[in-house]
Amino acid sequence: MNEHRDITGLKNTDEALRKFADIFQFTRIGIAVGNPGNMLLETVNPAYAEMHGYTVEELIGRPIADVYPPEARAELSKNAQVINETGHLSYETMHIGKDGNVFPVQVDAFGIRDEQGNVRYQIVTVQDITERKQAENTLRESESRFRTAVESLPFDLWIMGPDGRYVLQNTTSKKMWGDVTGKRLEDLNVNADNIEIWQKNNSRAFAGETIHGEVRMIVRGEERFFSNIIAPIADGDAIRSILGINIDITERKKSEEALREVNERLNAILEASPAAIFLMDRDGIISMWNKAAEQMFGWSQEEAVGRVLPIVPEHKHDEFLALSKRLLEGESLIAIELRRQKKDGSPIDISVYAAPVYDAAGEVHSLMSVVTDITLRKKMEEDLIQKEKLESIGILAGGIAHDFNNLLTSVVGNISMAKMLSNPHSEEFRRLVEAEKASLRAKDLTQQLLTFSKGGEPIKKVTSLEGLLKDSAGFVLRGSKSKAEVSAPDDLWHVDADEGQISQVIHNIILNADQAMPQGGIIKVRCENTVIENEESNILKNGRYVNIAIQDQGIGIPKGQVEKIFDPYFTTKQRGSGLGLATSYSIIKKHEGLIRVESELGVGTTFHVYLPASDKELAPAVRPDENALKGKGKILVMDDEEMVSTVAGDMLKTLGYKTEFSADGADAIERYKKAREDHEPFDIVIMDLTIQGGMGGAETIKKLREIDPDVKAIVSSGYSNDPIMANFSEFGFKGVITKPYRLSDISGVVSSVLTRS
To answer: Is residue 58 part of a domain?
Structure first.
């Protein structure tokens, strides 16, 4: 036998539950279910969570008191008791959001009882009534201000009842007409023409019309002019009284019209001005804030007016007060450049023209400031100063490096030859090797100086950065407590770079990072491909770059010093020349890149190095041959330093070449011509680029190519004012060798040039 059950009620219940779930989920009213026993939130709907700045999951299981500010939590137990007794409570209170913001709410709480009649759950609906409260406060303030204003208004204000009798007068009206309460219009001491006109206007107002006009009246025998307003006062649908206002404009009418016109023009100018213009009173409270000020600083007019000038950082308040005091005490104009802040806290450099504004009594009642944004100009000035500093020191550095490299050429060259004459297993040979290493370290020091000079142009080639970074970081941190973690994508772009100079940059930055972490730490070196588009500052050209980010966990750099760290000789360390980061700055500039720094005290520092990506393929690695290559031929050495010529000649003779010497270009040209005429030409000419008081390599190569278009010339220098060393082939040279050089260096370049067709 089949049993049938009527489940209509169950289906209706399910449908009702689904509707309740939809309401609970999607209503904009906050709903929460709380447990009065443990005072925890059992569940909340999305609107309740959003209202308080939490997610639903964050609120479930949280104490109900968490959404109440401390001062409102005391009422929780009392309210719970009322709900337990009555089953319902509606009240206004304050809630607090996750961000700490306190706001007023309307709460309606209902107790859900169990079978024993005890409240098992509380269902609470919450509505944010901030806007309502603000409206109520505004209304109350408005009513109070209205009552005060009516009595203190400097013009005649009255209210007339439906029987034509005055029922209200303000103080000014009583002074003008006497107490006319209860009287009719014809009882007033005014000219008859006015009474007739007023009676008509009053009738129109009782009919629902608002009357505006100007009238002439005789008041106590004196002719006066008034601006007149009569308006109906409705009580429901009926008009039972009218309001009248008479403003004496006898002496002010023309001046007010003129002033109104001036104000309109002034406001139009202020709003159209590209400069930020604002007025503030003697206490620094803003009374006027134009559109340009809104755009420049980020505060709207509503946010700025009525508060103390917000653009002044806290640590600059004393400076601000001092400037204001100067104007308040009689100074007519202050023109000054300052650093202030925007609404988002970012700094802005501004040019300020500030002047006092006087009242009719000649007293300063406010201060006006006209402000322009000079942040970009300041940045350009700083870049120009930085450039001039580097150019100035570059002149000195280049000269020192040139002379020093000449000395090192003699030292390194003689050591190289002495090594050839020594037993590789002897103590003498070992000491020569150590001396050579020290000399080459000195060469690295001159490279830092050369970087400041215009002659320190990078000799670029296509370079892969990942291996270079690992080698440089490993070398710097050898024996250190710190460790470098180098990461790069597999498809990292190559760059056109001088490997030695870029290694020097990485060396300097990682050394700084290590010194910022005396107890050691992790230095993260990250590489990534970056495309620069629409660069507003024009510091970098649009295009592809590789960004090297070097991040430490050190002590950080104080804000006032961040902008100085690239200055020559500026250092915060007890030991150090202050050239490391200045050198790095110059190197990256000459690579057409950018170096910048971000730092926070107690958190650490991150350097960002941007290098232009290369479109060329990476050349296969070639293992250098350290053995000196001997050969045959006749070589002319042109150098104005006798010690350089001597050691170069000795090395070439050791290698098997015949040598002659010239101290300048003019003599070298004559020797070259004579050798050709004698049918004993030079196979190679090695020329110093810089000859003091004489013709250097750049001019000499031009003359030699006129004599012999196939001349094989090698350029050599320890300093240059142009990029010839980096682009030697464009100027007619077949090879390049930088001072100082070893025997293996000169043998390699000479052999390469001789064998090249």
So the answer is: yes
What pLDDT shows up at residue 14?
A: 64
Tell me: pLDDT of 721 over 60: no
| In a shared domain, residues 179 and 263 | no
Of 495, 482, 481, the residue nearest 548 (C-alpha): 495
Residues 167, 160 contacting (CB under 8 angstroms):
yes
Could you tell me if 659 and 609 are in contact, meaning their C-beta atoms sit under 8 angstroms apart?
A: no
Q: If we measure between CA atoms, which residue out of 590, 562, 589, 567 comes closest to residue 580?
A: 567
Q: How far apart are CA 211 and CA 244, in angstroms?
A: 9
Residue 581 lies in a domain: yes
Residue 73 Cα distances to 69, 377, 532, angstroms: 6, 54, 54
69 phi, psi to nearest 5 deg: -65, 155
The DSSP secondary-structure symbol of 388 reads H
Give the span between the Cα atoms of 241 and 681, in whole angstroms: 123
3-class secondary-structure state, position 684: strand
Mean pLDDT of 332-351: 89
Say if residue 311's pLDDT is above 60.
Answer: yes
Q: What residues are paired with 368 via a beta bridge?
A: 279, 355
Q: What integer pLDDT is reported at residue 12 of this predicted model?
A: 61
Can you give the three-state secondary structure of 403-467, one letter per residue? HHHHHHHHHHHHHHHHHHCCCCCCHHHHHHHHHHHHHHHHHHHHHHHHHHCCCCCCCCEEECHHH
Cβ-based neighbours of 55, under 8 Å, separated by 6 or more: 49
Q: Are 372 and 351 in contact (CB under 8 A)?
A: yes
Paired with 483 in beta bridges are 522
* Residue 483 token pair: 């460790």
- The C-alpha atoms of residue 56 and residue 749 are separated, in whole angstroms, by 75
- Give the dihedral of Cα atoms 312, 316, 318, 322; nearest 10 deg: -70
- 742 assigned to some structural domain: yes
Tell me: do 602 and 638 sit in the same domain: no
Residues, the chain: 757
pLDDT tens per residue across span 614-643: 888 776 543 333 456 788 999 999 999 898
| DSSP per-residue letters across 498-564 | -HHHHHHHHHHHHHHHHHT-TT--EEEEEEEEEEE-S-TT-SS-SEEEEEEEEE--S----HHHHTT
Residue 144 inside a domain? The answer is no
- For the stretch 166-208, pLDDT in tens is 988 888 888 887 888 888 887 776 666 677 788 888 888 888 8
CA atoms of 593 and 586, how far apart (whole Å):
10
Q: Residue 471 in contact with residue 503, Cβ under 8 Å? A: yes
Number of CB atoms found within 10 A of residue 534's CB: 5
Number of structural domains in the chain: 5
CATH number, residue 724: 3.40.50.2300
DSSP 191: -
Q: Give me the pLDDT at residue 535, please.
A: 57
Residue 392, classed as helix, strand or coil, is helix
Residues 469 and 608 in one domain: yes
Contacts of 755 (CB under 8 A, 6+ apart): none
Residue 669 sits in the same domain as residue 734: yes
**Predicted confidence (pLDDT) per residue in 122-132, tens digit:** 899 999 998 88
Q: Which pTM does this prediction carry?
A: 0.40
Domain that holds residue 97: 8-133
Supply the CATH number for residue 208's domain. Answer: 3.30.450.20
CA distance linking residue 707 with residue 673, whole number of Å: 7
Strand partners of residue 688 = 716
Note the pLDDT tens digit of each residue in 379-408. Answer: 888 777 766 776 676 667 667 777 777 888
Name beta bridge partners: 357.
366
Last residue within a domain, chosen from 333, 350, 373: 373
Question: What is the Rg, in whole angstroms, of the alpha carbon atoms belonging to the chain?
Answer: 44
